[in-house]
Design brief:
By secondary structure, the protein is an alpha/beta fold. 33% of the residues lie in helices and 24% in strands.
């Protein structure tokens, strides 16, 4: 298994031209709405997950996860009003490289050129994508519906439900995962159990249906489940879109600590956030050996999305999240001073 190392894009969705190098630990993507944070997560996830699924192509996975109109892959081209070609280059450790290109006239099939194609697909990488919307409360019947009907759910929702249903490995759980599970159990005040296709939180009150839990608690419970069933192990790549969604700020420190512990155990993490508390928790909880890269996405004067990367919170530029909270503080200070 190998981690993601770099990405280069040309004319893909919001990106005219973009080049990024990734941290082997945690990669935090920030930026205002519409700067392509989720698009990057879905693209990277699609490129890695095809190594796990026999017979599925990159074009099929991109269509499943982006859901372009009429499944026309060419609609993922950056809109310029003229003929354009998108190019995607993704590099994993060991110099494994996937190169793909397609035009805005391409409808169904993606012309793929994969350098060392057999090596790319043979080097399996375990992936997890946690979307913004929690799905376990809606899981009963969802897999059969998704497999038999044309429904407007992105593929990431079906994938996470499938992972949640996996049974745990045989044998004892190692001490590192046990430590993480215990920390999460204290946060959610229980354990996750399944009955058929239904998920429950088992605690002192009994078995509580997921539909009765706050959505933020369900997300923490999902992480507990993925650690418990062995999905989140060393070598896994975790993509998490807005971990803070529907989560009380008092719990964000626990989420950040779990993410940092996962990267210490060898999990590479990609996440997006709009939340100051979550972002600042990474800065305050980071230890010297932790590897964190911040990627700030922004639009230039022509409207194209660009990125600045740094390995230190103070170097994030632009930092729309901190800037907004600084502005709120200034306004509150002026009001208290009667200015």
């Amino acid at each position: 298994m190998s981690k993601l190392k770099a990405l280069a894009l040309q004319n893909f969705t919001a990106f005219e031209k973009l080049t990024l190098d990734f941290s082997p630990g945690v990669n935090v993507l920030i930026g205002i709405n519409g700067t392509g944070k989720t698009h990057l997560l879905k693209l990277l996830y699609s490129s890695c997950s095809i190594t796990e699924e026999t017979g599925i192509t990159l074009s099929t996975k991109l269509i499943q996860n982006f859901r372009p109109f009429e499944d026309r892959i060419g609609r993922l081209i950056r809109r310029t009003g003229k003929s354009s070609t998108a190019k995607i280059v993704i590099v994993r450790e060991g110099e494994l490289k996937l190169t793909a290109s397609f035009t805005n006239h391409t409808k169904e099939h993606l012309k793929i050129n994969i350098v060392n194609r057999s090596a790319w697909l043979a080097s399996k990488v375990s992936t997890v994508y946690i979307p913004v919307k929690e799905m376990l409360a809606h899981a009963p019947g969802f897999r059969s519906l998704y497999s038999k009907r044309e429904v407007s759910f992105e593929g990431v929702y079906a994938d996470i439900v499938d992972l949640a249903y996996l049974p745990k490995f045989k044998g004892p759980i190692d001490k590192d995962r046990t430590r993480l599970l215990n920390a999460l159990q204290r946060a959610i005040e229980g354990k996750v159990v399944t009955k058929g296709e239904f998920f429950f939180l088992k605690n002192r009150q009994g078995d509580l249906e997921f539909s009765l839990l706050a959505e933020g608690m369900r997300k923490l419970a999902l992480i507990w489940l993925l650690i418990q069933n062995g999905t989140l192990l060393s070598g896994t790549i975790l993509f998490w879109d807005e971990p803070e969604a529907n989560l009380n700020p008092s719990l964000m420190g626990k989420v950040v600590e779990v993410i940092l512990e996962l990267q210490r155990l060898g999990v590479q993490v990609f996440l997006t956030t709009h939340n100051y508390v979550l972002l600042k928790e990474f800065d305050l909880r980071k230890k010297p050996d932790d590897s964190i890269r911040y990627v700030s996405l922004y639009r230039n004067d022509s409207g194209a999305v660009e990125a600045n990367s740094c390995d230190d919170y103070a170097g994030i530029d632009p930092n729309a999240i901190a800037g907004t909270f600084s502005d709120l503080y200034d306004r509150e200070l002026k009001r208290s001073l009667g200015v």
